[in-house]
Every structure is written in structure tokens, then in C-alpha cells.
Sequence to fold (229 residues):
Amino acid sequence: MTLRTIYFDESGYTGYNLLDPAQPVFAISSALISDGEAEEILRESFPTYQGAEFKFSNIWRTNARSGLLTFAGHLESLTDTAFTYMINKRFGVLTKIVDFLIEPIVTNAGYDFYSNGFCWKYCNYIHYGLTEFAPTELLDRLLTIYQEFSRNPTTQSLAVLKGRLRLMAQSLEEPIQIFLEQMADGAEAFEDFTSIETFKSSNELHTTSMVAVISHWRQRFPEDFAVVH
Fold:
């Protein structure tokens, strides 16, 4: 079976801390460029660079960074052989709130939460509501209290999350109140659907990002993939 080699690397990884203000975006880039083509582009762009590996941090700190414009000029011709998947980590936390607190309640009621991309639409509705109709600090507070629980999931921290979400819901008005009420309901029913013991890994971003990148390439190529990190 023919193998097609895909090269991967990531940027903005902050572990399970998805609210690091210094690195708000997580990205995985992939490329099908051959070693020879990559070497030619790098040497043409950064002819004075010293070092066995081309690292952006080293390039940026030296005179070699003037070559970034040359490097960027090559990117247009590589659109079919390179792909980057990016996640705004703050929005990622919101999608996890929806996925772990709201989706189980909806599905248990007999509805297909994922049908026709409703899950994506609903996350966008909630984000729009929280940014356009709610106090500016509400979204920050919501993401923070959920991250506190998701990084340290215990019976005690779940009880704190339940109380905070219910209090937030009771203090709001429509059209935002319904979203917080659903989250509070989901927190109160959390242990009916999810194991606290295995829940901490829900903050992991690598797997879903890698699957998204592989899905992109799978739509274009039928061969088996050899992935190099």
C-alpha cells in the first residue's frame, strides 16, 4: 500500500490550561511538501541562518527575520500542500460546556443534537448572546468557573459549579437566562451521563485537532498516511 507522508507541528500548547491569556490560540499545521522542496524554500528565504533546525523564535531574534517576506511569498503556491487547523481556546472551552452540560440533556430528551450541524449553530448562538446581550464580564466568568471544575473534577468542585451556574442563571434575564439555565441543569445531571474519574482529559486539544487535519487530507487522498511530528 502506498503511503503519503504528512508532517505535523503545533503551536500555542498550554496543556489543560485553555484560558492562558498569553497564548489564546492553538494551531496544528500540516504539510505534504517534500524534503527537497522544503529545504530549497528555507535556504532561499533565510540564506544567512545558522543552525541545524529552522526555528521561528531563532529567526525572529536575528537578522534572518527579513527573509520572512520571502518565505511568505512561497505560501501562495503551497495552498494545495499545506493546511493549518486553528482553535480559539476560549471558544473551545465554550463548546466543551455545551458538549458536556447541554448536549446530554437534549439527547436524553430524544433529540439529535448533532443533526444538520445544530451543535455548531447552537454554540454560535450562545456565544453571540453572551457577547452581545450580557454584561461584558459574564463570558469570562463562565469560562473560568467551568475551567476550574474541568481541570479538577471532583464531587466537591462539581457542587461548586452547580451552585455558581444556578446563581448566575437566576440573576440574568432573557435572552441569556435560558442558556445558563440549561448549563445549570446539565451540571446538576452531570453524573448521570459522565464519569468524574475520566473527565479531566476533556481539556485535551491534540486529538480533536489531529482528527480534523487528517479529515481534511482524507477528502483529497485515498492512500494510507504516515504522520511525522
Observations:
- The radius of gyration is 22 Å.
- The first helix runs from residue 35 to 45.
- The beta strands are 3-11, 25-31, 82-88, 224-228.
- The chain has a mean pLDDT of 93.
